[in-house]
Write a structure and sequence with these properties.
heterodimer, A: mainly alpha, 28 helices, B: mainly alpha, about 75% helix, elongated
Amino acid sequence: MWAEFSLTHAWLIPLLPALAFVLISFFLLSSPWLASRLAIAAMGSSFILALGAAAAVLTQGITVEAPFVMKTVWFSMPGLSVDMGVLVDPIAATLLFVVTLITLLVLIYSTGYMAGDPGYCRFFAFISLFAASMLGLVIATNFLQMFVFWELVGLCSYLLIGFYFFKVSAREAGKKAFMTTRIGDFGLLLGILLLQITFRTLDFAELAVKVPAYVAENGAASLTFIAILIFIGPVAKSGQFPLHVWLPDAMEGPTPVSALIHAATMVVAGVYLIARSFAIFSVLPGALTVIAWLGVFTALFAAFIALTQREIKRILAFSTISQLGFMMLALGVGSLTSSMFHLMTHAFFKALLFLGAGSVLHALHDQADIFQMGGLRKSMPATCLMMGTAVLAIAGIPPFAGFFSKDEILVAAAHVSTPIYLLASLAAFMTAFYMARLFILTFLGKPNPHNHPHESGLAMLVPMGVLAVLSVVGGIIPFAMGFGEWVRFGPAHHAGIDWAVAGASTVISLLGFALAWYIYGGGHTRSNDLTIKTGALYTWSFNKCYVDEIYQWFNRTFVGGLARLSFWIDIHALGAVVDNAWRGTGAAGSEMRRLQTGQMQQYAAVMLSATVVLVILLAALTGSLVKGGQI
Amino acid sequence: MIGLSHYLLVSAALFGLGLFGLLTKRNLIAVLMSIELMLNSVNINLVAFSRYTAADASAGQVFSLFIIAVAAAEVAVGLALAYAIYRGRGTVSVDEIDWLKW
């Protein structure tokens, strides 16, 4: 009954937060209590509906092949007909569940974290709109509908990252995120247009039928190009190299926003887009190879940078990029199941990590450098315990959530390509190392006497507790219930654990922990030594491989150069033409006006001469002065 | 026998005189008088053509009456202007009446 209702009314899931956004921004901007409660109520209802939809998917036998679709014509013209509707299948249901849950928890957390902030109501309005856009994206039935919500998500991220708009760095970060994702959107839009031109449809279900037939007939070359164009969108949105630069800067937003953007919503939109259109990508091995290698490179690259960062949220940001690389790589090796599984578990533990970081920052009054922290386990035992859980989960220690999803990714990678598997394992090792480094420097060791930390309030600890529980059981329960039977593409994957891969990855993670403990466990001396010894490598990593600097150089040299060239052309070429045009007109005018003497007898003479000339001309034209010689 | 061409010759001679006066006279009053001469030469033309080419219709003759009326009005306005200029500037020489220029 409830499940059935939720499924057929799935459009309410994005609509309720959207409604909350409208109500808050029009009526409740000055009543914080009501605004936050309204946002939470709307999100809670959406969460219940999402749960119902998921239950309906499980009980009514809705599969990836036979999704629940409800749609109506949005607009139609000759050659282009676009629907708007609701598509619920196990993949979408998973995302609905994750997004509504994380958003709900973040909203509850924010009532504590944002308390007293002048933008309190605005914050809840934006978060509601953000969730609405993301949920609309999840249930989209075609590319265009998805694109609309995709852009809305981008807009909301801009608003939220630049939430503290009175800070220059926040404004700049918001702009950077918006611009960077615009680059991806451009590719995505081109890809969508080409799909429409090629197949005359943008509907996911219709494309899933038409694309394999097209490939069988015409080969994969042109479609691979289209797929790569589409992939540029997710590269920007999901922070893949080289368009990841906005993601670390997005930390300028309030911490709950970081948790939301980096865990549940915006960044996984790209992964979800690929998963949703996997029918296209799965028949294009070239595109899949690109995705897999870019994914594994991003995973390694971001993990390498995360090794040396000092700001707690920045480490987590690069960790997110790295984990998104894992998800992309999973898609690239053709395992939609493991990608979605990792998306879900990552949402749990990464949201927990960010909320935990927020709790720490709250306690230390925005002291973000982990080398200035230390010993927080005594003053913040609950936060310490939950952060520890999340660290174990992200490192992939059994039986925590990350273990199962990461293991599946590694198994899938090992089946396809050994180099990818080895590189992914290396990235996993680095993940364990930098997370342990973060945890040791923050919570263990001697307390810094300059800090006066205090444990956070219940509004913040309860959502973290829920996420901590999910970080523990969020892997094993779906695994035991046969997650891969439902969320999959093509035939279901094996459900067992490859013990060789699992054992190896666990050992690797433990080694990462051990190394981190060896270096950072006993004060800062060993780490300082290491910094000096690894000189260039350390600098390279600490400065984020200079990607930002490369962009700035590119900007200065090429964009600025083009601007300077245009300026020169404007001044010296176009300007010369325009200036001479007006000068010439003026000069001609000042000469010509001398003809007007004011002497009326001259005018009369001119009139006479003109008449004479006219008469002679007419005579010449008609042959004689008097026609036919007759007067 | 006096025919149409005789009238036209007289008219042309009158027009030529008027034109010569318009272009050469320095006195504003004389210029106005020259214009009157030209108008009257046109009147002769109109009446002559009317008489010799369409004797039944009197349109040409009526036209000349109109021109006489308009000429009278024109002289009235012209002389008033000349008088006003003379009062203001102390001259009726067209060489000096040249301030309508750049």
